[in-house]
Design a protein that fits this description.
- This is REP element-mobilizing transposase RayT.
- It comes from Desulfonatronum thiosulfatophilum.
- One of its GO terms (molecular function) is transposase activity.
- Residues 12-159 form the Transposase IS200-like domain.
- By secondary structure, the chain is of the alpha+beta class.
- Among the domains are: 152-186 and 195-252, no CATH class; 254-301, no CATH class.
- It contains eleven helices and seven strands.
- A seven-stranded mixed sheet has the order 2-3-1-4-5-7-6, with helices on both faces.
- A hairpin with a 7-residue loop joins strand 6 and strand 7.
- The radius of gyration is 20 Å and the shape is globular.
């Protein structure tokens, strides 16, 4: 079967939800492996022209939510700065290399390839093995700023709760919310956009509090898939920490956030689709699907039988 086209936009900063799953059986990503994978993600997030908005590293797969920038952001001076930060103050990048790095450091595929290959080398060395670690190529979804983004981030941060690993999402340290709460966003690893710009909040502590409230209210909903947050826990947290306003009711459906090509308003989905439809070997018209429980948010599934890389 032909490979399905990957939707990418390289003419403007774009947010992607990416997910990759291991090819090995069981849960090979234990604590030490998750720590190392997180260190690779952190290091490469400072090298590439990317904002890390959210993440969750599970036992057999991981999620990243990133904003990729365009070549306009990759000035010569900034490339040299990042190159030296990556390889040492004495590292020298030749003038003829700048063009190649400018293209590479804004490329989603190159970013993911470096993460996955770097971890595979580490895993194989420490397990004295050879061969593949990751399964099929990573999935990616284009995500609109605002409501679509905050709902996606909540879905990602609630993975450990749904899997029964923790009762409270911030107790899981290999997730965006866990990192924010447990470290105070050490080294500024995560961009604090979180899809909450329309709330006009600029205090980092208040942004985290409001986002945490949103995640709790989302996690309390019975989605029919996986575990939900303990209602009594949510009640206590709401009484102790939350204001009277409530986040929009949301019933997350995994397929929208992992198998879609585009997520956002109907206008956003239409705009992005018109810009990437040349990647598809299909004459099908646009297909919009409302995301259940999230008013005004739509999904466009990738089309079966399409080709591309």
């Amino acid at each position: 079967m032909a490979r399905i086209a990957r939707f990418v936009r390289d003419d403007r900063p774009t947010i992607y939800h990416v997910m990759s799953r291991t090819a090995l059986e069981g849960f090979p990503l234990q604590d030490i492996e998750k720590d190392h994978l997180m260190s690779i993600v952190a290091r490469l997030s400072r090298f590439y022209f990317v904002d890390l908005l959210g993440f969750c590293l599970m036992g057999n797969h991981f999620h990243l939510v990133v904003r990729m920038y365009t070549e306009e952001a990759a000035t010569d001076a900034e490339i040299v700065k990042r190159y030296r930060r990556q390889f040492g103050d004495d590292a020298v990048i030749m003038p003829h290399q700048l063009r190649d790095y400018r293209r590479r450091l804004v490329n989603l595929g190159a970013f993911m390839k470096d993460i996955k290959q770097g971890f595979t080398r580490y895993f194989n060395k420490h397990r004295n093995r050879k061969g593949f670690f990751w399964g099929d190529r990573f999935k990616s979804v284009i995500v609109q700023e605002g409501a679509s983004l905050v709902n996606l981030l909540a879905y990602v941060d609630l993975n450990p709760v749904r899997a029964g690993l923790v009762r409270k999402p911030e107790d899981y340290r290999w997730s965006g919310l866990g990192y924010l709460v447990q470290t105070g966003n050490r080294a500024g690893l995560l961009d604090l956009d979180l899809g909450l710009k329309e709330w006009n909040e600029f205090d980092p502590k208040e942004i985290i509090r409001k986002y945490r409230r949103f995640v709790y209210e989302t996690g309390a909903m019975d989605t029919g898939k996986g575990k939900q947050l303990d209602p009594e826990l949510v009640k206590r947290e709401r009484k102790k920490r939350y204001r009277l306003s409530r986040a929009d009711v949301f019933r997350h459906r995994c397929r929208y956030f992992t198998d879609s090509g585009i997520i956002g308003s109907k206008e956003f989905v239409a705009e992005v689709f018109d810009g990437v439809k040349h990647l598809l070997d299909s004459k099908d018209e646009r297909r919009f699907t409302p995301v259940g429980g999230v008013k005004g948010v739509y999904s466009m599934k990738r089309l079966a039988g399409a080709v591309g890389g």
